[in-house]
Write a structure and sequence with these properties.
Two copies of one chain form a homodimer. Chain A is mainly α. Helix content of chain A is 62%, strand content 3%. Chain A has helices spanning 7-10, 13-36, 44-62, 65-75, 83-100, 104-126, 130-151, 158-165, 171-194, 210-224, 260-278, 295-309, 313-327, 336-342, 360-375, 384-396, 422-441, 444-449, 453-463, 473-481, 487-501; strands spanning 231-235, 241-243, 249-253. In chain A, 45% of the residues are buried. The A-B interface holds A 19-20, 22-24, 26-28, 30-31, 33-34, 38-43, 45-47, 49-50, 53-54, 57, 227-232, 244-248, 250, 285-286 and B 19-20, 22-24, 26-28, 30-31, 33-34, 38-43, 45-47, 49-50, 53-54, 57, 227-232, 244-248, 250, 285-286.
């Protein structure tokens, strides 16, 4: 295990600047956390004003002349930098360039545009009126295209946007990746739809009181191993994880009485994010590196805990007795195997956030293909609903009945987040590749069934979590598995799992 | 009602600086609120680091050259300033001077000293070892004496410290005030101790579950009129109120199963602080003036709700039916009058924070007299335990069995808070003076009994709350009652109330 020491980094001007940014961001994050977990509504505007001021102060530092000088000073001696300092330079340089290369008036106009776009999108979605969102979306795309020109790109302009969420990722790599994924999932889904075996999911809507679901959440946290002395769980409208650094990582969930699996898997998913955050090494605690490296690696961890651990038969066997003690007689006719099968049933559906493990990446592929077309100017925004629906028909075999449940379903584009969606699938694929390597060292089934998930976490911590933002995704994956991202692991994992499940 | 408009203030450089300070302080306050209401312990140090950074950034602005220029610019046209701008100048000038007049090395050394003093004090208190705290306390006092010299003073050096908590207050005024208070309470307490009538308080320790006490707290909040759309209640080790500005004021309480009156009155007390904070006028929302004007006026409001409203027979009559519905059969033998009497029983005691309404000011007088002696160099720190105990014997007729329950009981001195204690008594006295005026306009008994506390709040809002930090205490009191602070109201209020209660 490489030993890291942030002493050198902490003696730099860059550290002094990022340390200020860190404090401002912690303050802003705390205001945001508070706002999402029960702050009195009447204070929203006032707190949002303070939050915006803290964030923009941190932002101003990230693109300040002071920052420029601090970066140049270190870049002059680039070859002599230790890994911690080099990583901090890499991150700060990227932030600096991605903003400073854009004319300030355009950046301001864009920020104003996106500040109002979410409301416009939300109204359009509610009224099923794509035309009402189209002009705004057109502008957002135009800005993003121009920005990639200012910022520069290699190969496809979309690469620059991908790189914001998954450092180093390119369309070449993703095209090959998604081609394989599509070639496997589309026929597999068809076989499942036509399979003799049908999975009974009727019982998952039996009501479980919020009080019992809270006990269940506590049980899951304990079994999964999220550390409540350095974290906590609260309720919010939508589940999320927020990190105040390694020592304080917080998760939320939302309880629905007749959908206990919703909270069940959101808790495990967010625990995965949380455990990643809690596993970062001492040397970089409370620095700008005390955070996950990328969206994709983050999702690889949350989905590893959610799907590879939480959706395994072993896990249901592990928690079954304590689960039954909590939910009581209502479920006494249901076996661990029935829970396991219901939690894994696969079917074509319209809404990404409700999709199952198998079909999830199909939703992502559609968005990836469309984003690439948009950023490369190959389609017009007004064509989007048609193209969207055609792709859903082609890949999933269903057509959205309206745009609210189609092209208008996601918030991302209204926030200008192009290049974000692929991370979700990359997370799944990294996870499968990590799993394949892990299985050489560990007997996962046995560890899960016997409640030794801590040993799995230790394995992940040593290879991924501890590095925080030091190592980029491609280096992490290569160090773990000896090769670059390889979709074969992911498609094999899905094929094996769902063929067995549906007795294909 | 004077109409205020902050437009002019908001066009000044001073506003731009204080607005930044406001955001930083909101961030710091949110971190502090979070830390006291359930943050995971493992993150304490990390969050404290961010909190300190935000606070010191705000502090740096308050004593910056930029601040100096902004103040001078406005002070040049002092006579033409509107009241809002003038108040902001007054507050910022005071902050600026109180720090900048002190040599920076001394300020730093003092901050270091007090940063460690609380732990030293806490250990000394725990071990009943005054000598272990004495050297630190001696240093803290020496610094405060020197600081008053640097900062300048009129009359008594202690005046400069008093002014930090109660703008404009002097030892001359306080000497006269406390003389009257002492002359009334000491003999009145003696008469109560010797009175035939004894109040039964045995039932107040009957257990009430935390769940029921929470319902009770909700009932009190509703009856008192604390607005939960612009505020909230949580639990903390010690009750407190924190304001994020008019639109978001938060209170806490602590539940003890066998001391339901503890949470009961802490909720009403903090609601009083909260209602003050929620009553500030539109014109100064989310500015540096969106806060109570002083400790004393703040306590006058919290104690008005706690004592004048919450400890009245009318209030117990108001809540009695709903109270009984919550606490159930356990208390069915207790009448509203018995609750009222138990909540007002008076007796000499050792601990200030547990003292009743009558004897509270005696605890304060002792501290005031001692602080004056210390700051004027008339006694040595090592004499403190003896002097403390002598004064407790003289004023309350009891002697602390040890220093933990004597001179070591309060945290204030370890934080260098000299001049703070008198505010507690001033709050009581302001409250009585306000009450005397209010009674000319309103039939309080009737309003309380009939659940119309909102009308009392409206009266206070119009005359006090709305002004936030615009008007200083002496102006507020004079505007309300037509005269300066007059202890006669307070001593008359206590005499009338306790003579009736104890049938003297």
């Amino acid at each position: 295990m490489a030993e890291y020491d942030s002493k050198t980094f902490k003696s730099t001007t860059l550290y002094a600047i990022t340390d200020k940014m860190w404090s401002l961001n912690i303050g802003a994050s705390m205001l945001s956390w508070d706002m999402h977990t029960g702050a009195p509504e009447g204070g929203n505007e006032s707190r949002a004003k303070a939050l915006a001021a803290l964030s923009s102060e941190a932002f101003a530092l990230s693109i300040s002349d002071e920052m420029k000088r601090a970066l140049e000073e270190l870049e002059d001696v680039q070859d002599n930098l230790d890994e911690i300092t080099a990583a901090a330079v890499r991150i700060c340089r990227k932030n600096y360039d991605s903003t400073r290369k854009i004319p300030i008036e355009e950046m301001r106009a864009y920020q104003e545009l996106t500040a109002n776009a979410e409301t416009i999108w939300r109204n359009a979605k509610q009224k099923n009126d794509f035309a009402a969102f189209a002009p705004t979306l057109t502008q957002i795309i135009a800005y993003n295209k121009r920005f990639t020109t200012y910022r520069g790109f290699t190969g496809n302009p979309y690469n620059t946007l991908l790189d914001d969420y998954e450092p180093g990722m390119t369309t070449d790599e993703l095209d090959a990746f998604f081609a394989k994924v599509k070639a496997t999932i589309v026929p597999l889904l068809k076989r499942i739809t036509e399979a003799k075996k049908k999975i009974d999911t009727s019982f998952v809507n039996r009501p479980i009181s919020v009080k019992k679901q809270k006990k269940l959440a506590a049980l899951l946290i304990e079994k999964i191993g999220f550390d409540l002395t350095h974290g906590q769980i609260r309720e919010s409208a939508h589940p999320f994880t927020t990190s105040f650094g390694r020592n304080d990582v917080r998760i939320t969930t939302h309880y629905y009485e007749t959908e206990f699996l919703s909270s069940f898997y959101s808790v495990i998913h967010e625990c995965g994010h949380g455990i990643y955050g809690q596993g970062i090494m001492d040397g970089i605690v409370d620095t700008i590196l005390d955070n996950g490296i990328s969206m994709g690696i983050g999702e690889s961890q949350s989905r590893f805990y959610e799907n590879m651990i939480g959706r395994s038969l072993s896990f249901w066997e592990l928690i079954y007795p304590e689960l039954m003690a909590i939910v009581g007689d209502e479920f006494k006719d249901i076996t661990a195997k029935q829970f396991y099968e219901a939690a894994n049933s696969a079917r074509a559906s319209l809404i990404r956030v409700e999709a199952d493990e198998l079909t999830y990446s199909l939703h992502v592929i559609i968005r990836y293909e469309i984003e690439k077309l948009l950023i490369n100017g190959e389609i017009d925004v007004m064509e989007l609903p048609r193209i969207w629906n055609e792709k859903y028909q082609e890949y999933l075999g269903i057509t959205p009945p309206d745009d609210s449940r189609g092209v208008l379903q996601d918030v991302h584009w209204s926030a200008g987040m192009f290049g974000y969606f692929p991370s979700y699938s990359l997370g799944n694929a990294y996870g499968a590749q990590i799993l394949a390597t892990m299985e050489k060292d560990l007997d996962l089934k046995e560890l899960i069934r016997s409640g030794n998930i801590g040993k799995i976490t230790a394995w992940l911590r040593e290879r991924i979590h501890r590095y925080g933002s030091i190592k980029i995704p491609s280096d992490l994956i290569r160090a773990i598995s000896g090769e670059a991202l390889n979709a074969d692991y992911y498609v094999r994992y899905l094929t094996d799992k769902f063929e067995a499940l549906y007795e294909l």
